[in-house]
Fold this sequence. Notes:
Keywords: Membrane, Transmembrane, Transmembrane helix. The chain crosses the membrane at residues 26-47, 59-76, 82-99, 106-124, 130-148. By secondary structure, the protein is α+β, with helices and mostly antiparallel strands. It has 3 domains: 11-123; 135-179, no CATH class; 190-439, no CATH class. The chain is 43% helix and 13% strand. The chain contains 14 helices and 7 strands. A 5-stranded antiparallel β-sheet has the order 2-1-3-4-5, with helices on one face. Strands 6-7 form a two-stranded antiparallel sheet. A hairpin with a 7-residue loop joins strand 4 and strand 5 (370-374). The relative contact order is 0.07.
Amino acid sequence: MDRDLVPAQSIAEVVPPFEWGSVRKVGSVGLGLVAGAAVLGLVATALGTPPWGLNTARLFLVFIGAITTGAAVSMRPDLWQAWALGAAAGALAVIGTPSHWDSFRLLFGVAGAVAASWAVLLFAPAQYRLPVLSVVLVFHFTGIFLATTSPPSTPWVTEQAFIRVYNPYLQFLYLRNAYHFYSPEPGPASVIVCLLKTETGTDAQGRPQYDTWWVALPKRPADVKDPLGLTYYRRLSITEQIARATPGLGQTTAENSEMLPRRKMVLRSIPLHPADPEATQYRLPQPEVARFVLPSYASHIILENTDAARAGKTTVKIYRLEHKTLSVEEFVNAFDRANLIASPYHPSTYRPFFLGEFGFVPDPDKPGSTRIELLNPQEPMLYWLVPVAPRPGGRPPGDTNTREYIDYMSIHALDTLNLSERDVDDPAYRDKVFDWNQLR
């Protein structure tokens, strides 16, 4: 109880703060390391093709220098001089980081800008700090409020403020998804289904032979690694990155007018989906998705599921499966009505969009190396819906082998086998076609 009688003491009296001289020495060491990396960066730029090990040395100097400078800032966060050191280190780190580490360049740039802003705030008189911080907090939470009210119908003022100011800000901070509530109805989720194909040789007639297998992302229960399933749902959100389509693309646009004749070339073997409007069966991805995201995913899928010796001979066909949510009416008395889908995981509830076949090809800009790219930009089914449609007339009475749906996705993916509607039900091909039970 005696401790309660001791007068209250300030934190500075209990734990004396670091002297500015010590902070300055630690910060100067970190700043010097980052400055060295910046000098090496200028040398690398002047040389064009830097020697081996130069970029690695830059990375070590940048990371060690950034951590050291950050330690100096944490020693005296109440001093504007410490934050000024951090701002200078952030600016030099952008120059010192190799260009192919562009994400870390962005990180150091943002960190340097924040440090500079805080240094200015601490340098300013105390009476100006509270208003500035209040404005920042009001701006931030106004953005979150506008994100929750941005779905249609939206007032004109809210729409303009969100699109022109807050959407880029929230997108940069990655606050869009969690605060953009699913109202009034949730949109369809997506999964990625891929067919990997590795050339294994030729047959007696000289025709190439392939080893094929399917990969689904994400997949239960393999990707459910915690009790709440967060690992699965985080992987599920990754698939949404390739679901971003070019807005306003109708049948009257030039893009679709070029694609439609190509699509009609394969109408006999792969018809349009009978239940969806023709205008919605072509989804052109946004340019950054087609140019960067999809090739990156394809490279990861090939390297993750093959070894180094087979990766160069392997291609991957990517399908984004949009899962259609059944309505309440479709569930009511579903088992009492014939030819009605009752399972929410029935294959015909998925809408597979073909996103292309990717593989490694020689890189003309870097002799001796390869790069991943779309192999056939003129593929007739590229970016079109490949239907998994109910079989006309349903399953024949007494026929246990024929499915009640036609899996055109497997027919399209396994084009080297020349499958037909009848072949996908043949037991001889059961180990080749996609197993829809993987998605349950």
